[in-house]
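Quick start: what a row looks like.
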Amino acid sequence: MSRIGKLPIEVPKGVTVSLADSFITVKGPKGQLSRQIMPAVSVVIKDNSVVVERPDDTIASRAAHGLTRTLVNNMVVGVTNGYQTDLEINGVGYRAELKGKELHLSLGYSHPVIYPLPEGISVEIDKMTKLSVKGIDKELVGHTAAKIRSFRGPEPYKGKGIKYATETILRKAGKTGKK
């Protein structure tokens, strides 16, 4: 039995969970999320909790058991608290600014990088070098932060580029001069 999959998901006050066909919908104070449930598992709403069950011990249902429980739990946490990923920009002249629903990044290229923000994602910029990607969908927040980081990942010699705030860059020693 999956250790994660068998844990019930407590539904906090102000959040409603509903099932329709093979879709689960979670509504909360921050918004609404919906996801299709895999056919290998079933979701049961009991009292104030959600339980993910599997009908048998096939490989497919065992694999989907813990995953489905975690996805539903992420939906419940997202509509109550939301998710946030922090990024830092390092480098002379590297900066970010928000213009409407577009993120404009100056990253040392001959042109600015313009990234249109997906629906449901907001970005806060502090001092033009610190970004906070916020949203209720954990998967979308992580994907957006990874996409922004991919425009200029941190390099190992000077550490220039975009990195996660919690990320540690392993620095390399540069070339040594002639003696």
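That is the whole record. Helices lie at 59-80, 138-150. The chain has two domains: 9-80, 83-164.
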